[in-house]
Structure formats: C-alpha cells, structure tokens
Design goal:
single chain, 369 residues, mainly alpha, transferase, Acyltransferase
C-alpha cells in the first residue's frame, strides 16, 4: 500500500487537471475574502483555509514533479531552487512592484518606507518589525507571506529528500510536523499570516500540510492510473469535490479543531479523490484555465484590493441590493486582469527563462561528462 520514497521512476507526464481547478477556486476564495465578501454573505467565511489547501497541493505537486529525482540525487538542490524561482518569482516581482506603486501614489507611504520594504520583498525575506511586532512583515503584498513560507518548505524538503528517502524517516518527519501544527493550533495561531510576531507559527502552518501533500502523492501509487477516458461519473465527481472545497472555504468561521480537521483530513481526501480523476472531460478547459490563472489572481489581487477598498467597502456595506452584482463584477474584472497578466507577462517570461536554463544546462553538460 505504501510506496517506498525516492523509488526509481521516469519524469512525470500526468497532469492533474481537476487539482488545477481546485487551486483556482481556492485563489478566488482568498480574493473574495479580501474584497469583503462578508458583506455579500452576511458573515466572514473560512476562506483563509485556502492557503492551507495550497500548501497541501504544493507538496503533492512537488512530489509528483521532483521528489524521486531529489531523493535519488538526480536533481541537485541548486537546480531545484532555480526551477522553483523561475516558476514563482516573475509574478511575485510584479505583485510587489504593483504594491510599491500603490503605496507611493495612493497608500501614503514615503519613498524611504517603500524602498526599504521593496528590498526585503524582492529578497523574499520578511520585513523585520522589532518596534511593532504586530505589524505586517509583507507590507507591499500581504499574500506573499504564504509564498515565502512555501518556498522555505520547498527548499527544506528538497535538501532533506535524500535522507527522507526511507519511508520510516519520512513518516517520522511527517508526524513531527503534524505535532508542531497541533501545537500551533493550541497556541491559537492557526491563522498566523503576515504579522512579524507570527512568522515562526506561519512556517509550521506551511510545513505540516506541505509534508502531508508529499505523503498523499506517495501513499497510493495507483493514483496515476486513471489518465484516460471520461464520463459523466468522473465529471460529476470533479464538480462535487469542487463544490465540497468551496463549501468549506465559504462556511462561517469555525472552532480551531474543525479548521485543523479540514487541513489534516478533509482537504487530503479532496486531493486524493481529485487526483484519481481523468485528464480529459467536458470541463477540462475550465479546470486548466482556473489552474493557470490561480497564481496571478493570488499574487496580484492584494494591491488592487487596497486601491478598491475605500469606495467598494462602503457600497457593499450600505447598498445591500447592489452588493452581489457589484461584487461579481469586481471579481470578474480582476479575473480578466489576472488572465492578461498570465498571457502577456508571466507565460512569456517563463518561456524565456526555460530557454535560458536549457542553454545553460546544455553548456554545462559536457563539463560533467
């Protein structure tokens, strides 16, 4: 039942399209939360749990794409770091620069303040707030707290992959990380995000789901078998898991133990079910688009929320009949903007980076033989 970690294998070719769609739904939920969806729903939802879902999904995808090569030392830590930064940094750069422009023009910050925050943001390091520990360590773009800790966990596990190749070691490390997450929950910090004083908690909030995501990928080797065919049952199952995820993310705020159960039990079940669904089906194009646009949505929405908030929040709060259509219109506009950023900026830059890295590898290959 349990596959050995780091077992030999070829480069993965499977694409989990329903998981792509779930990633997009989670990103939209976070955007909706920041856009004050509470005025539409009548309550504040649990959309912050979307970030924990991201961490789980990140572990699953990293395991699929890189874990065997890392564990067998067929991919170096340095190569993995470069590949991950090439994937994430362009959009993080744009999100931070948009945040800097906002604070310089509309946010009331000085050039010195923005310049200092930008240096730390571009270095992917939280801004120290020793004088005010409750202040944001990610002032230009608060969404990047999760990406910073995701990269930290990515790099840590990549460095440990050869040592964690034995199943018992990985299980022990997973158990330790889950215990640490439970300790974070008991400390009342399961919602740790941007505050400087919460960064240690935020790291362990990211670590346990990420490690669990790797475990989920390796748990059932048969999860890659369902790669062909389609049908009403598979499509319906995909819709049901999407609705289940949305229901959790848009439910009212729950006690800590329920939130912890969602992260450790419900979300893993959703991922395992979705991962078994076929790639091709009537909703494949939708799932792929949601997955493609998810990162631009997450990386870019916060500065625009800052800019929209002064006029959007009063309208949503005071004009209930118009709240829902206006909210949907704003969401649609930001999705369109994210799609443009994806097509015109992110994808071309990543294609260029891929060519550069391929040329570099081609030049270095003779020296290694």
């Amino acid at each position: 039942m349990f596959a050995p970690f780091g077992k030999p294998g070829t480069a993965p070719t499977r694409h989990f399209v329903v998981l792509d769609g779930l990633r997009g739904i989670a990103a939209i939920a976070v955007m909706a939360l920041h856009l004050k969806v509470k005025f539409v729903l009548g309550y504040r939802p649990e959309a912050g749990l979307a970030v924990d879902f991201f961490f789980l999904l990140s572990g699953f995808v990293i395991a699929h794409a890189y874990w065997a090569r890392l564990a067998e030392r067929r991919m170096s830590l340095g190569t993995f770091v470069v590949v991950r930064l090439a994937r994430l940094y362009p959009m993080m750069l744009l999100g931070n620069l948009i945040g800097a422009v906002y604070f310089l023009t509309l946010g009331g910050k000085t050039m010195t303040q923005v310049a200092g925050a930008t240096v730390f943001a571009l270095a992917l390091v939280p801004l120290p707030r020793l004088a005010d520990p409750a202040a944001s360590a990610y002032p230009l773009n608060g969404a990047f707290w999760s990406l910073t800790h995701e990269l930290a966990t990515n790099f840590l596990l990549a460095a440990m992959a050869p040592w964690l190749g034995r199943s018992w070691r990985f299980i022990a490390f997973l158990a330790i990380s889950v215990v640490a997450l439970i300790a974070v929950a008991q400390a009342g910090r399961l919602d740790a995000t941007i505050a400087w004083q919460d960064q240690a908690y935020a790291f362990f909030r990211a670590l346990a789901p990420f490690v669990l995501g790797i475990f989920l990928y390796r748990l059932l080797p048969a999860h890659t078998a369902s790669t062909g065919g389609s049908g009403l049952a598979a499509t319906g199952t995909g819709v049901l898991v999407a609705l289940a995820l949305a229901a959790v993310l848009f439910m009212p705020i729950q006690p800590t133990w329920i939130r912890l159960g969602a992260v450790l039990v419900l979300f893993p079940a959703i991922i395992l079910i979705a991962a078994r669904l076929p790639e091709q089906g009537p909703l494949t194009a939708l799932w792929r688009w949601l997955g493609a646009v998810s990162f631009p949505v997450y990386a870019l929405h916060v500065p625009f929320v800052f800019a929209l908030d002064p006029w959007l929040t009063p309208i949503l709060a005071r004009h209930a009949p118009y709240a829902t259509p206006l909210f949907v219109l704003v969401i649609a506009a930001l999705l369109a903007l994210a799609t443009l950023a994806l097509r015109l900026y992110d994808e071309p830059i990543r294609r260029w980076l891929k060519r550069v890295l391929a040329r570099r590898n081609a030049v270095q290959a003779p020296a290694r033989t």
